[in-house]
Amino acid sequence: MLFAHWLTGEKNPLTPRVLINRVWLNHFGRGLVGTPSDFGIMGEKPSHPELLDWLASEFGGQGWSMKRLHKLIMLSTVYRQSSQRDFKKAKVDPENRLYWRKPVQRLDAEVIRDSILATTGVLTPKMFGSPVPVREDIFGQIVVGIDKKEGDTKIPVEVSLGAEEFRRSIYIQVRRSQPLAMLHAFDAPVMEVNCERRQASTVATQSLMLMNSGFILQQAGKFAERLRQDAGDDFCQQISRAWQLAFARPASENEIDLSLNFLAQQIKQLQAQQEKSAPQPPDKNEKKDSKKEPPKKLDPQLQALTDFCQSLLTANEFLYVD
After folding, report:
1. Which segments within 126-167 are labelled E, that is strand?
2. In a designed cystine with 124, which of 163, 172, 213, 267 is the match (CB 3.0 to 4.6 A)?
3. To which H or E segment does residue 105 belong?
């Protein structure tokens, strides 16, 4: 108890400074002190020492309220300014240490997954309880699910989790030998070592994950179903609703026109593919196979809407804070 009082007391300003620096790092990608885990003589000096001291004092004076701190920073001019580059200012301060523009930041891996689930309308709000298990799928990727295999070849079998697989990423089981593929691709921390600061890489595997992973394709389908439920069969209303859900803003006239053209082209292409792959009339001399099931017909409009939804979920505006 005495140690806790000393740690958070007025005579020890180090604790609120470290917390402030962590919050600032989360919002701007770089802390006021560039070494968030080292405030000693071996660490970097703060770029704005007066600001750090004032925020620490304000934080303590407001009862150590993290909510007030986030609000204070996010309502500031430095946070709300544009992210556009100015070549004259870039020559003077290429690393943006003086914050002459808002740095563009990608969402954390867990936030990307949670945002997708929230946008498609399947996010489970359940709190606490046992972790959601992970397993290896048929392609060798680690996905959410119960690890169950059958047969001599030990092929993974799908086991229903109800709505547990759509819980927030914080509840997903963390296994050092089996990092979830979706989170691992977007630089989720590795549990083998301490992570003082997250890395934000841009690599090809992220694009491949967004294009081909079963999780993204599944969520794009659920997004399309949600749009049909919310906006009916009218494409303009579906597009407007999709923009509000994905980007939290209305779509411009140009964006609506481009989206309508995309949907029209996709429907035309899917219909042509469906006609090309349509089964031919059976040959009179060919024996009928009663066990053979006819191929399932896809709804070209729903599939085109699903492709459109996938493009929104993988857009930079969805993945980055600008």
Report:
1. 134-136, 142-144, 149-150, 155-156
2. 163
3. strand 105-106
Q: What predicted TM-score, i.e. pTM, was given to this entire model?
A: 0.84
Instruction: Quote the CA–CA distance of 322 and 200 in Å, as a whole number.
Output: 15
Nearest residue to 259 (alpha-carbon basis) of 241, 232, 236: 236
- Nearest-angstrom CA–CA distance, 17 and 8: 11
What are the residue ranges spanned by the domains of the chain?
Answer: 2-103, 107-191
In contact, 228 and 238? CB cutoff 8 Å? yes
